[in-house]
# Entry
Amino acid sequence: MSSPMSTVPAPESGARREPLLRHLLGGVLREERLRQGRTLVDVAARARVSVAYLSEIERGRKEPSSEVLVAVCGSLGIRLTDLVAATHAALVGSVRPVLVDLASSGNGVTAVPHGAPVPASSGGVVLLAA
# Structure
């Protein structure tokens, strides 16, 4: 039996790749630590993880468990929900919406990059996809 993920097509060559969750989480944690003016040593000690491991998490090289994330968040004085919300914001900010004109000629779909002028259509519907 195949998993649902096995049916997801691989990105086409040259297609924009989704950012990895571990990179986003690590970046948010690092930004929060630096915003607070804290050191890796201080945060790692309070979270009871090694400095090297916390550094790897912040650089997006390790996938931390939920227990480790809770510990690091606690050390930073934030909630896990705050981390998830900030990570969501970073993810949404990294994805550019695309306009699709279903009334265009040809194959019926024209993708327009975000920020580009929308082509005039003959009363067709333009959908904004995120």
